[in-house]
Amino acid sequence: RFCVLPDHSDVLVTAWVLHAWAHDAADISPILAAISPEKRCGKSTLLSTIAVLAPKPMHSVNMSTSVLFRVVEKYSPTVLIDEGDAYLTDNEELRGIINGGHNRLTAYVWRSVGDDFEPTKFTVWAPKCIAMIGKLPDTLEDRSIVVPLRRKQKGETVARFRADKLGEYLPLR
Questions:
Q1: Average pLDDT for residues 133-155, to the nearest whole number?
Q2: Cα(80)–Cα(21) distance, integer angstroms
Q3: C-alpha 61: how far from its chain's center?
């Protein structure tokens, strides 16, 4: 509705969605980062569009570190993190989990589980997309395909994303 993708960014988003479908064949998994300088640039709409097209989408506007690695271990979703500026910047533990999921060989965290505190290995290997206002933390940006968004200008038109038309995306998916 308000989103304008810069030249060729649609190709990057499309390629990343294909990557999400072929994720198990990859050794490196870049984060897709939708970044805008201000609100109402279409970040959430872009994530909703990706959610319709990607395998097993898990859309979240906030989550704890323990929820992230447990959900990835149990469901192997495509992780769609919205409102990243609200809780990623100051959460080094969560950023560490997201960063660690970049390389298949190192995409694990260890935690103590149960009453006997049994050491347990959890995978954090999953395709991840982050939408946020402002600048990504350096370690996330280094592992990301950055798609800058901006608000549409007067005279520009963009197609509206309609939740009541999601069925139309299923053949493309």
A1: 87
A2: 14
A3: 11
